[in-house]
Each structure stands twice: as structure tokens, then as C-alpha cells.
Write a structure and sequence with these properties.
It is built from six helices and five strands; from the N terminus they run ββαβααββααα. By secondary structure, it is α/β, with parallel strands linked by helices. It folds into two domains: about 10-150, Nucleotidyltransferase, domain 5; about 155-195, no CATH class.
């Protein structure tokens, strides 16, 4: 059972990111402050939900949250400062965009770069433990998926509409055969699919 926010005596924002393991596109992050007593059936870690379930939950979260924000770091920033630091920066940008500033942050994962003047806790697998982190995971994931789907129209050969930039066999094969697009992360290695190159699961 996921826990509600307000484990502390002040406003708490949950933060999560999406797209760290992708070969292309930005990393997105979201910050969400939920109201006390918030309940939303089906709210869970975005990875445990289907695309359709996430799309149903997103507008409810955005409507009922006390505050929410989504931000990103693009592929060039990722190449410059590395994906871990880019994930932290995207979270900082999301927190900065919140119309209501929280007094405490709960971060999904085991590391975070302290946001100025706001204490935080890192929660391993927090998107499956806290409602506000789960809500942030859904917003980060759906906003990023939407971005990559729109980008697919310009670069259909990489099938971003389906893989969203993640290193599927088909995506890796396309990179090896066609080369990198302007939106690929140049510091990320593209492994040769080798024995699974012609897998029907690509």
C-alpha cells in the first residue's frame, strides 16, 4: 500500500524522473505536491502501469494536486554533464517551477543533489511506496512519452513512437545501420545486438 504525503508537518513534494536509460531524447522529471488525504485508485509506480492506465491517471493528478511541474534536460546537456547530473538538474528545474514551494522533498532513488534550502530524503523504489513519488513518476513518464511520440514524426526510422528512445533491439539496429539522429545521446554506447539481432521480439 502506498503512503500519502505529509509524513512531516509541512508540505512535501515527491520527485521522480523518466528516460535515464534511453539512447535518445531528454530526461524528464516531475515534482508533485498532493493534498492531505489524497486517494486515487490505481495510482502506482508508472512502470507497473500500462500506457492507457498512465494516460487516465495523468489528468486527475494534474487537476487535483496542490502543485505539480515537469521539466527536462536535453540530450546535449546529458552529454555534457552526464545522465546522473542531468537527472538531478531536471528535478531541480521541476521543483523550481512549482507554484507552491515545498518544505520537504522525497526523491525516488538513492542519490540526489541537495536543492537549496529544502531538505530531502532519498527513497529506494519510492515510486512504489509513496503516492507523491508515484504521481511524479506518472507525470514524468507521460510527458516524456508524449515528447518522443511527437519527435517520431520527424525521425520515424527509429520507431520512437513505440520504444520512446529506449535501447530495444530494433532501435539499436537502426542506429547501427542509419547512424545517430540529432537527438541521440552521443556519449551513450550502442551495443551490437549480436545473437538477438534478428529476434522477432524487436
Amino acid at each position: 500500500m502506498l503512503l500519502n504525503c505529509f509524513q512531516y508537518e509541512f508540505l512535501e513534494a515527491g520527485c521522480d524522473e523518466a528516460g535515464r536509460g534511453c539512447l535518445a531524447g531528454p530526461v524528464f522529471a516531475a515534482a508533485v505536491i498532493l493534498p492531505e488525504g489524497f486517494v486515487l485508485k490505481g495510482l502506482n509506480d508508472s512502470k507497473q502501469l500500462t500506457h492507457a492506465q498512465r494516460d487516465l491517471l495523468r489528468p486527475i493528478i494534474e487537476k487535483e494536486a496542490l502543485a505539480w511541474a515537469v521539466a527536462s534536460c536535453d540530450h546535449e546537456e546529458i552529454d555534457k554533464i552526464n545522465i546522473l547530473n542531468a537527472s538531478f538538474l531536471a528535478m531541480h528545474r521541476a521543483i523550481e517551477k512549482l507554484q507552491t514551494q515545498p518544505k520537504y522533498l522525497v526523491i525516488d532513488g538513492n542519490r540526489f543533489k541537495t536543492y537549496p534550502e529544502i531538505p530531502h530524503s532519498c527513497i529506494v523504489k519510492g515510486d512504489g511506496k509513496y503516492l507523491n513519488i508515484a504521481a511524479a513518476s506518472i507525470l514524468a513518464k507521460t510527458h516524456r512519452d508524449e515528447y518522443m511520440t511527437n519527435l517520431h514524426a520527424e525521425f520515424p526510422e527509429y520507431n520512437w513512437q513505440k520504444n520512446k528512445g529506449y535501447p530495444t533491439i530494433a532501435h539499436r539496429r537502426a542506429v547501427l545501420e542509419i547512424g545517430l539522429s540529432p537527438f541521440h545521446r552521443k556519449t551513450f554506447n550502442v551495443s551490437v545486438p549480436q545473437l538477438d539481432l534478428f529476434s522477432n521480439n524487436a
